[in-house]
Amino acid sequence: MDHDIFGEFREYSVAEFFKKNRQMLGFSGKVRSLTTIVHEYATNSLDACDEARILPEIEVWVAEEGEERYRVKVRDNGPGIPEKLLASALATMLSGTKFNRYVQQRGQQGIGATGCTMYALITTGQPVKVVSKHKGTAIKCSLGIDFKQNRPIVSDLIKEDCSPDDHGLEVEGTFADVKYEKSGYGVGEYLKRTAIANPHATIIFNSPEGERFTYPRSIDAIPRKAREVQPHPLGIGPNDLLDLTKGKYESTKLSSFLQNEFTRVSLNKVKELQELVPEVDFNMKPSELTWEQAEKLVAAFKKVKWIAPETDSVVPISTSQIEKSLRNILNPEIVYVTERPPKIYRGGIPFVVEVGIAYGGDVNKDKEGKPASGGVVMRFANRAPLLFDAGGCAITQTVKDIDWKRYELRNFDDEPVALLVHVVSVHVPYTSAGKQSISAEDDLVDEIRNAVMEAGRQVQRHLSGKRKEKEKVSKKAAILRYVNQISGDLSELADEVKKKEKLRANLEKMVQERFE
Amino acid sequence: MDHDIFGEFREYSVAEFFKKNRQMLGFSGKVRSLTTIVHEYATNSLDACDEARILPEIEVWVAEEGEERYRVKVRDNGPGIPEKLLASALATMLSGTKFNRYVQQRGQQGIGATGCTMYALITTGQPVKVVSKHKGTAIKCSLGIDFKQNRPIVSDLIKEDCSPDDHGLEVEGTFADVKYEKSGYGVGEYLKRTAIANPHATIIFNSPEGERFTYPRSIDAIPRKAREVQPHPLGIGPNDLLDLTKGKYESTKLSSFLQNEFTRVSLNKVKELQELVPEVDFNMKPSELTWEQAEKLVAAFKKVKWIAPETDSVVPISTSQIEKSLRNILNPEIVYVTERPPKIYRGGIPFVVEVGIAYGGDVNKDKEGKPASGGVVMRFANRAPLLFDAGGCAITQTVKDIDWKRYELRNFDDEPVALLVHVVSVHVPYTSAGKQSISAEDDLVDEIRNAVMEAGRQVQRHLSGKRKEKEKVSKKAAILRYVNQISGDLSELADEVKKKEKLRANLEKMVQERFE
Question: Which residue of A391, A429, A434 is in closest CB contact with B391?
Answer without folding.
Answer: A391
